[in-house]
Amino acid sequence: MARGHQKIQSQQKNQKRQQELKKQQGHDQKTAAQKALIHTCTVCKAQMPDPKTYKQHFENKHPRTPLPDDLKDS
């Protein structure tokens, strides 16, 4: 078991390694996918990546609700 100065060095080395691992985990697929979902349904708050998918979703899931203004022109 390490004592004194060696113990402190080991703790600092481990802390540095843990910080580097956290930085690497920050760039995961889930975060990138969440950024791509920019259109949000006004009725159910579901998120879609593009207006075409949003319009299809709205026509299929909410047929009785009138289309929002941003979908009428597309």
Automatic annotation (TrEMBL):
Compartment(s): Cytoplasm; Nucleus
Residue ranges of every copy of the Small EDRK-rich factor-like N-terminal domain listed in the record: 1-37
InterPro entries attached to this UniProt entry: MBS1/2-like (IPR045230), SERF-like_N (IPR007513), ZNF706/At2g23090_sf (IPR026939)
Keyword Transferase found: no
Keywords annotated in UniProt: Cytoplasm, Nucleus
Pfam families with a match to the protein in the record: SERF-like_N (PF04419)
Biased composition (Basic and acidic residues): 17-30, 52-74
Region (Disordered) residue spans: 1-35, 50-74
Protein name: Zinc finger protein 706-like
